[in-house]
Amino acid sequence: MQYLKALALLLVIVGGLNWLLVGIARFDLVAALTGASFGETNALSAVIYILVGVSAVALIPTLFRWATSDTSATTAS
User: Fold this and answer.
1) Are 34 and 45 in contact (CB under 8 A)?
2) CB-based contacts of 36, cutoff 8 Å, min separation 6
3) Domain locations in the chain?
4) Do 55 and 8 meet the contact criterion of CB atoms below 8 Å apart?
5) Which of 22, 36, 60, 63 could form a disulfide with 31 if both were Cys (CB 3.0 to 4.6 A apart)?
6) pTM for the complete prediction?
7) Residue 73: DSSP 8-state
8) Nearest to 29, CA basis, from 38, 13, 77
């Protein structure tokens, strides 16, 4: 399960970096890697975008666990 979470996190990071590039340089890395033009999708880029989205949804419970965890038990005083 940790492997899947790590993979999901990696995909979310890739998605975030792609959006950073779109916002700063109007460059769509996923489109460039899959042979599409900026703003266009093909079958492969659609699969990548879907995997990034599914990864984000899969990490929501991890976020809630992190946000509600008792950090005082693990923090040295």
Assistant:
1) yes
2) 28, 42, 45
3) 2-67
4) yes
5) 36
6) 0.77
7) G
8) 38
